[in-house]
Amino acid sequence: MSDHTEIPEDVRQALAEVLNLASAVAELQGDEAHYEALYALLDSVAEYFDIDHQRPAAVQTGFVDGSDVPPQPPEQVRVRPRDEPGPDREF
C-alpha cells in the first residue's frame, strides 16, 4: 500500500463517516471563519484520500404561513387547573 488511494474499502468508508461527523462539528461553529477553516481541513483530507465529501446544503426554515419569522406566542396563556373541566369537544 504505497499509494494513499489504495486503502481497503472498509477503511475508506470509516474515514468517510469520520468526515461526516466532523462536518456536523463544523456546522456548530459560532462564526464563519471557524466554519470555513474546519471545512477546508475536511476538504483537504477528502481530496487526499479521494473520498466524495460535500458540504451539506443550506437548510432554510419556513413556517406554515410561508414566512421565515417564527410565530409569536400569545401575550397571556392561561393554564387550566387539573380539576377544572375542559371545553366540550367532539372528535
List the helices and strands and how they pair.
Layout: H1 9-27, H2 32-48
Helix pairs in contact: 1-2
Any key phrases for this structure?
91 residues, mainly alpha, 2 helices
Describe this structure in words.
With 91 residues, the chain is an all-alpha fold. It has a domain at 9-48. It is 40% helix and 0% strand. The chain contains 2 helices and no strands. It has helices spanning 9-27, 32-48. Helix 1 packs antiparallel against helix 2. The radius of gyration is 24 Å and the shape is elongated. The mean pLDDT is 80.
Rg, nearest Å: 24 Å
The beta-strand count equals: 0
Report how far the terminal alpha carbons are from each other: 68 Å
Query: How do the helices and strands follow one another from N- to C-terminus?
Result: HH
General shape: elongated
The total of helices stands at 2
| Average pLDDT taken over every residue | 80
Instruction: Note the main sheet.
Output: none
Low-confidence stretches: none
Helix/strand/pairing category: mainly alpha
Helix content: 25-40%
How much of the residues is beta strand, in percent?
Answer: under 5%
Concise structural overview:
This protein is mostly helical and 91 residues long. It has a domain at 9-48. It contains 2 helices and no strands.
